Amino acid sequence: MPKTKEPKKDQKKEIGITIKKEEEFGEWFSQIITKAELVEYTDVSGCYVFRPNSYSIWEKVQAFMDSEFRKLGVRNAYFPLFIPEKLLNREKEHVEGFTPEVAWVTHTGESKLSERLAIRPTSETIMYDSYKKWIRSWRDLPLKINQWCNVVRWEFKNPVPFIRSREFLWQEGHTAHRTKDEAEKEVFQILDIYEKTYNDLYAMPCIKGFKTEKEKFAGALYTTTIEIFLPNGKSAQACTSHCLGQNFAKAFDISFLDEKEEKQHVWQNSWGYSTRSMGIMICMHSDNKGLVLPPRVASTQAVIVPITFADSKEKVLSKAREVKKCLESEGISVVLDDRDELTPGWKFNEWEMKGIPLRIEVGPKDVEKDQAVIVRRDNGKKDFVKTADLGKKAKEALEQMHKDLYDRALRLRQDNEAEAKEFHELTKAIKDRKLVKAAWCSSTECEEMIKDKTGGAKIICIPFGKDMDRKEAKGRCVCCGKPAKYEVYIAKSY
Ligand code: 86X
After folding, report:
1. pTM to 2 decimal places
2. What are the tens digits of pLDDT across the range 39-80?
3. Which superfamily does 25-81+132-285 belong to?
4. 122 C-alpha vs ligand 1 centroid, how far in Å?
5. Integer distance in angstroms from the first to the last C-alpha of the chain?
6. How many angstroms separate the alpha carbon of residue 49 from the centre of ligand 1?
7. Cβ(172) – ligand 1 distance below 6 Å
């Protein structure tokens, strides 16, 4: 018996995204990342494979950030994965609260280690143990080191690829300075680099601000953060830059002789940006057809799909090759999809799924008219372009797409921002998945009350004011009604 062929429609359904972003966000996200071949799940919960389609994005981010860090005099290094228990416990305040998340190596083969080794959850302790040896005099400062590495935090909340995984990749920068002023200046310079990375590569706007005392890194004087509001109504902490003051310097005895030969503790910062950023980008831009890649992180920016018929195949293919050269001459990375066994429609779906920013169609009619069709991934708009203008027009389309993605993400945030003056307005807005702006008295009681009474929404940050200070609020605290101190953003968050 001949097998009945599956209807085309069903085939498409199976391969394509079958769940709507606006209906079941979590399921939609997991389809996007597997079907676009970004990640593979493994047998270890919370640990995922970064396949080439996602790792190549990370490499672009690394290249961009490295060049920005270098301008500030930051150099890369690499410290060990394993941290002896004694060292990890050196700064109690910083480890407390995190201990359940630390993964340990206890054995080699059958023999027990005399001291168990932590798999780094972050590298302050192991790096500062070296810093103490390297810093002697004011001439050794500033010391600015970054490392690109993996870290492990055995989270117990439900893991989400990119967003909350047990092992992830990041950069962690750790610097030491002579003065508080010099250190503080850098905290904001780094946050600006992070913002630039989100803006210029990922096409996303940022909210910059301070974490509250409750939410800051315990080892820091203060924590600055970038928060990004996502289409599912949750906000994500997108990176952090901490002013550590002299807390670690005192715990690790990192000191120097100043110009008067007097002993001083250094002023330190630490800052990190992780592969979570890719998850944020995917949530933000992708749609019900699949991934949407902002052009500057796409390792393939355009795909040419020839539309061939038996009689005109060679003509079309040779035109397609000419088109490829046109785009390449403008520095665009292009793939010519000349696979014989697949229909153009099938290829369209596949490249849409993978988020390639531009599709260029070349058919017999286009050969005749000496043109090609440029189709944008984000809005599906078609542009018929003469061959002579193709390189330039494709480049413009990529630049416009970047701007449009950014603007759309900004509009999403603006459309979902709500202001709450009274507590019932706050709870209602949170229920409606809004990003809420409110005034807050700065008490921890009110901060906790907000969390309790909104089903887990929290103060995500105190936005920067004009002088990069905490933006002050007029009026009354949304919670207790006493005079307010700061303006805050409140949202559910990852
Ligand atoms: C906080 C602080 C800081 C350098 C950054 O945010 C940027 C880059 N580090 C990280 N943090 C911990 O200190 C920590 C410690 C332990 Cl022991 C742990 F298991 C989990 C942790 N998570 C975060």
Report:
1. 0.96
2. 999 999 999 999 999 999 999 999 999 999 999 999 999 999
3. Bira Bifunctional Protein; Domain 2 (3.30.930.10)
4. 5
5. 53
6. 23
7. yes
